[in-house]
């Protein structure tokens, strides 16, 4: 990975300086309360990039002092074909510009909304890529902690690119936390209940929710009432609609990942050797496959 360059400027005319650095700013492709992501063109790289712009003025103290430094530290460390690549970090005035790889086919949620449930052969290819990325992150002691369909981007060949490391952190064993972060719909019951949890398991449960959404085009639990959702998680196994056929192997894998008992919940090695994951799957007509 190219070494990330940190440059500091003091100016109010952001775009003029970005232009001097070789960046032409384009349209907004994502927006939050104190950050937005814009499309840009890099003359140096001779290609389109994504630029995440964080305004320190409007960001809360906790974010500026804890989450932002963690995000930047994690992004600098990550170098994997199925994770969004960091090119450069530019800091000036009260803004931070994170220049990243641009994934041109939107996110996985948009893909599913447009096409419906993803056929299992195609889901398998994508889920292997997700598992490969998470396995890599955990291998370098990074937990993402906000895995969801919106944070899984697709490149022009519809390969998965994990993005948004805003809640990510390095962890050391014993990796226990009780911090809730991310989306409730993708959170394990122990996290929602405020029970101290093993940090990497935050990502594992979310992977189960993602796989369910991929093959069913719906959520495994109704998150409109979190207290009820926790009861549903604790009291029953995940259910599947009879109108959308899902193979018994896929149901079995999802059931083992969305396992309430953390001692029985599948780990990455368990997922990788599950029969559904090891089936030979031809690459779908829309391209893709693991380029690692």
From TrEMBL:
Statement: the UniProt record of this protein carries the keyword Transferase: yes
Source domain of life: Eukaryota
SUPFAM superfamilies according to UniProt: Protein kinase-like (PK-like) (SSF56112)
GO molecular function: kinase activity
Domain Protein kinase intervals: 23-277
Cofactors required: Mg(2+)
Keyword Ubl conjugation (UniProt): yes
Binding site for ATP: 52
InterPro entries associated with the record: Kinase-like_dom_sf (IPR011009), Prot_kinase_dom (IPR000719), Protein_kinase_ATP_BS (IPR017441), Ser/Thr_kinase_AS (IPR008271)
Alphabetized UniProt keyword annotations: ATP-binding, Developmental protein, Differentiation, Kinase, Magnesium, Metal-binding, Nucleotide-binding, Phosphoprotein, Serine/threonine-protein kinase, Spermatogenesis, Transferase, Ubl conjugation
UniProt similarity note: Belongs to the protein kinase superfamily.
Protein name: Testis-specific serine/threonine-protein kinase 2
Organism expressing this protein natively: Aplysia californica (California sea hare)
């Amino acid at each position: 990975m190219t070494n990330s360059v940190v440059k500091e400027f003091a100016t109010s005319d952001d775009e003029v300086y970005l232009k001097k650095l070789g960046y032409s700013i384009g349209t907004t492709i994502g927006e939050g309360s104190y950050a937005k992501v814009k499309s840009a063109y890099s003359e140096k790289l001779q290609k389109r990039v994504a630029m995440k712009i964080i305004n320190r003025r409007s960001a809360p103290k906790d974010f500026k002092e804890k989450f932002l430094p963690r995000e930047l530290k994690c992004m600098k460390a990550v170098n994997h074909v199925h994770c969004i690549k960091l090119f450069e970090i530019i800091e000036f005035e009260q803004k931070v510009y994170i220049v990243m790889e641009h994934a041109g086919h939107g996110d996985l949620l948009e893909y599913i909304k447009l096409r419906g449930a993803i056929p299992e052969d195609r889901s398998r290819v994508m889920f292997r890529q997700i598992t490969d990325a998470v396995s890599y992150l955990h291998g370098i002691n990074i937990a993402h902690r906000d895995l969801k369909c919106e944070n899984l981007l697709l490149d022009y060949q519809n390969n998965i690119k994990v993005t948004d490391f805003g809640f990510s952190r390095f962890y050391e064993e014993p990796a226990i936390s009780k911090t809730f972060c991310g989306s409730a719909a993708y959170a394990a019951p122990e996290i929602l209940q405020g029970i101290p949890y093993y940090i990497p398991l935050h990502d594992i449960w979310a992977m189960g929710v993602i796989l369910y959404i991929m093959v069913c085009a719906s959520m495994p639990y109704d998150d409109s009432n979190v207290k009820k959702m926790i009861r549903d998680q604790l009291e029953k196994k995940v259910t599947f609609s009879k109108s959308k056929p899902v193979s018994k192997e896929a149901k079995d894998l999802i059931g083992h990942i969305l396992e309430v008992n953390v001692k029985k919940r599948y780990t990455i090695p368990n997922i990788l050797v599950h029969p559904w994951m090891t089936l030979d799957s031809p690459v779908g007509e829309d391209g893709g496959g693991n380029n690692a």
